[in-house]
Amino acid sequence: MKTVVRLLVVVLVALPLLARAQPASYPATPEALTALISTPDVTITSLRDQLYTFRPTSGAPTTGIILYPGGFVDFRAYALLARDLAREGYVAVIVKMPLDIAFLGYKRALLAQFVNRDIRRWLIGGHSLGGVASCTYAREFPQFVEGVALLAAYPSSSDSLRFSRLKVASIYGTRDGLTTATDISRSARLLPPSTAFVPVEGGNHTQFGAYWDGTTPGFVQPGDQPATITPEAQRAAVVEAIADLADRR
After folding, report:
1. pTM (predicted TM-score)
2. Which parts of the chain are beta strand (E)?
């Protein structure tokens, strides 16, 4: 019953963001889809197209990061971020969600962790509504994750992490028109005092993933502001912030 109530609260919190999103999901860009192909430095495996695991081909990774997609965004739009995390020595997993809404499948991290049972240290994170859902998972299963990486996101009040022992990074773009700096500032009361707030100067909401409307080069999600840095630069800043979070003890 408590889980049902929390989900209802999450839905209510998410409604403003959902109202600004289009009903049809944004597809992954061609570049993101290309990143689903293994390369000499990253091996990519798929479980019936429900999740993709990105592993570095060298070394023995010990830490994994599960990424939940933004609302109405194809989960494969986060393949470039997952690939770049794998190149830094982490196992990264992107997970498909029912109707492309992460809080409808917030427990799917359990499957990602089961498939990658050799990894003992886990972080979970997500973009926008995916970040909301990652907090729901972390609050319900704190024994399975060490930390949360929020990408233009924050928890619902019912899933406050304020008094948890989790390490958290709140990563946001200074040009984000959907999850604004004011939103991030107000969310501090829902996060541990040790939370690292990481501004990505010139970054926006859209460039946390690699998605578009299918026709417009340089696409910017409605309600967002154009970024003043490249997608590559924003992604590099996100990877650095997640790596810093993983290294915190």
Report:
1. 0.91
2. 42-47, 51-56, 63-68, 91-95, 121-127, 147-151, 167-173, 196-200
